[in-house]
Amino acid sequence: MEADPHHNPALGHHFETLEQQHDTNILGMWLFLSTEIMLFGVLFTAYILFRVLYPEIFIASSHFQNATIGAINTAVLIGSSLSMALAVRSAQLANRRALLIFLAITAILGSVFLGVKGYEYYEHWHEGVVPGFQWTNTELEPRAQLFFFLYFVMTGIHAVHLIIGIGLVLSLAFRSRKGSRYLGESFLPIELMGLYWHFVDVVWVYLFPLLYLIGRH
Amino acid sequence: MAEHHHDDHTAHVTPLRTYLLAALALLVLTIITVAVAFVNLGPLNDVVAVGVATLKALIIVIIFMHGRATSGVTRLVIVAGILWLAILMVGTFDDYLTRDWLAIPGR
């Protein structure tokens, strides 16, 4: 292939304009996120269903959740989303140093969230409220395993999404460590990364009140 | 053409202030949702919890995910995703939650 001096390196050869390339990629990402809505949606549907059928189980079980830790973790995730948004902004403004710093902060805050989540899982293990593996708690009736099953599956799949997200953020940071990759007109991969990261944040926005704050009053 | 592209991409840079205010609003709404959870409002507790969460989700989608700057077909995909979720939920609940409406033995 002969190098075209007029060709824009930010533009894929199969696209006419940068705007078309941008809209196409954003559309594709949202299609993927729609399938993610269905993945988490099934779990939220199960949550609502069993909560309506067995409300007393959910209220009794939620007392084993630490609302303060959950709220702190929510704040950590909001901070990571702000950092991710600022990473996109830095990429658009072609500021490589700021892009790297904000990607790093995003990955660190994501890891802090996972660390706190791991601590909570450790506590649940000691309280004996892990259905199937460690159900030794005597305060709760056996049926309460239903709540903790939903809790571990929902937060577990959310955590897996965060682990993937942190890996992707770090790999983007690594690839943009020098040169002009992802800067200015080429910011699209960072924008797509942002869409994924913020989506995972939206899921937690619903998980937090539903899993931590019911039956508090 | 190159100038045209340049205009396009600079037009979409969100001001720093907007992002900071969005994050601040999300933190304030988190505090509100925790505070309200400790007050007994009966069934309204769930309404407030889901309502505040939806407000937070809207802030994230519109400001952090640039929902307003997306093309029409992308907005259609977003709405369709939520609509399909609604179909899933309605289709599930109209079975499970109506089973004891009729006293049929062995239902």
Describe the overall structure:
The complex is a heterodimer of chains A (217) and B (107). Chain A is elongated, with a radius of gyration of 21 Å. The mean pLDDT of chain A is 93. With 217 residues, chain A is mainly alpha-helical. Chain A contains six helices and no strands. The model of chain B is unreliable at 1-10 (pLDDT under 50). Chain B is flat. Chain B starts with a helix and ends in an 11-residue tail after the last helix. By secondary structure, chain B is an all-alpha fold. In chain B, helix 2 runs antiparallel to helix 3 (44-64). Classes of the chains: A mainly alpha (217), B mainly alpha (107). At the A-B interface, helix 1, helix 3 and helix 6 of A face helix 1, helix 2, helix 3 and helix 4 of B.
What is the number of helices of chain A? 6
Q: What is the chain-wise order of helices and strands of chain A?
A: HHHHHH
Radius of gyration of chain B from the CA trace?
21 Å
Beta-strand share of residues of chain A? under 5%
Count of helices of chain B?
4
- Could you spell the SSE succession of chain B in H and E letters? HHHH
Strand content of chain B: under 5%
Q: Based on DSSP secondary structure assignment, what is the total number of beta strands of chain A?
A: 0
Largest sheet of chain B: none
* Helix share bin of chain B: over 70%
- What global shape of chain A is seen? elongated
How far apart are the first and last residues' alpha carbons of chain B, in Å?
Answer: 68 Å
End-to-end span of chain A in angstroms?
Answer: 69 Å
The residue-averaged pLDDT of chain B reads 86
How helix-rich are the residues of chain A, as a percent range? over 70%
**Low-pLDDT sequence parts of chain B:** 1-10
